[in-house]
Amino acid sequence: MKPIISKDSIVYFGEECYSALNTYLEKANHSKIFILVDSNTHEFCLSRLMGEIKGSYDIEVIEIEPGEIHKNIETCSGVWNVLSELGADRKSLMINLGGGVVTDLGGFVACTYKRGINYINIPTSLLAMVDASVGGKTGVDLGNLKNMVGVISESEMVLVDTTYLGSLPANQMRSGFAEMLKHGLIQDKDYWNQISDLSKLDLTHLEKMIYDSVVIKNNIVFEDPTEQNIRKYLNFGHTLGHAIESYYLTHPERETLLHGEAIAIGMIMEAYISSELLSLTKEGLESISKVILHTFPKVTIPSEDHQPIMDLLVHDKKNEQGNIYFVLLNTLGEAKYNCVVDDQLILKSFEYYDSF
Fold first, then answer.
1. Domain holding 156: CATH number?
2. Where is the 3-dehydroquinate synthase C-terminal domain (predicted)?
3. Which of 118, 237, 245, 333 has its CA 20 to 30 A from that of 287?
4. DSSP per-residue string spanning 335-356
5. From the CB of residue 290, how many other CB atoms can be counted at a distance below 10 Å?
6. Quick one: 163 and 175 in the same domain?
7. Strand, coil or helix: what is 93?
8. Do the beta carbons of residue 183 and residue 216 sit within 8 Å?
9. How far are the Cα atoms of 38, 42, 139 from residue 65, in angstroms, in the given order?
């Protein structure tokens, strides 16, 4: 597949990934290479990567604990200290081998260590392949608040090798699929129609589906790299989705939600709001709800949790001058950003989701 070129990075696919990586490593002359993994990618993915690297390099592996709960400044501090102890300098390279937590956190660590070292993302989850590793957003959570500390700075390259998906459990695959559905809803009705019925999809075509999803995101990011306008479209489902995810992260008595699972809920709720405020038809709302609920199991959100989740909306990164802004849908494939929604309508969106 043809590489996808962004402003400052290139996304490679399939076997071309490693020829591009080896060419880069040979020319770059980095002093040291650090590969950041979590315990899962250390076990299931590292050996493949190491087997594909040609040449003799000074390589160190740094392992962190898996999961969103560890995507914080404390983990960053640990990695920064290890880099310092192992003699990392400004000519060092960080390769982030993992899902969204590893690529988000590893990118942030690289961008801030000695005011910035080069990094490469090798996403190993579907979510990271279509979303977290593309577009240069790096960062970590602040307590239960998602991605509150970070920078936008693109990697040297992104390598999308779907071989790594073989070790993923079904819920992790579904989590990534939520972002692919989102890309169709905000920008490309044909893509939404193509992927919305999983029963008709041949997973041998998964790489092409990922490729098309990355193209959609890259086209948006290329036009608006710092999220001043249309890059906000990518936040559809995330205003409420992130609040739900954050709330559940700090309430262990509630069901644990993966990022995509929370975003799936957010997309249904924000589609409902779209049908009330904008021109999204009832048929469009029903289509979105049916597709998402066919793929993602219904989650019970007790009524006593509605207001505490809404209270978290004030921390959303899209907010400006005290206003809580949503991304909503005019129709399938067409979004609108900077939409203000009143609390009563947000509460009704909880009731809509709970009605299924």
1. 3.40.50.1970
2. 176-319
3. 245
4. EEEEEE--HHHHHHHHHHHHT-
5. 13
6. no
7. strand
8. yes
9. 5, 10, 16
Shared domain check, 160 and 131: yes
Cα separation of 354 and 323, whole Å?
A: 26
Q: Last residue of some domain: 168, 190, 208?
A: 168
- pLDDT tens per residue, range 306-321: 999 999 998 876 777 6
Q: Do 163 and 202 have their domain in common?
A: no
> What amino acid occupies position 329?
L
Residue 252: give the domain boundaries: 171-354
Q: Which residues contact 330 (CB under 8 A, 6 or more apart)?
A: 274, 278, 279, 280, 336
Four-CA torsion 67, 68, 69, 75, nearest 10 degrees: 80
Contact 26, 55 (CB under 8 A): yes
φ, ψ of residue 47 to 5 degrees: the values are -65, -35
Rg (CA), the chain: 20
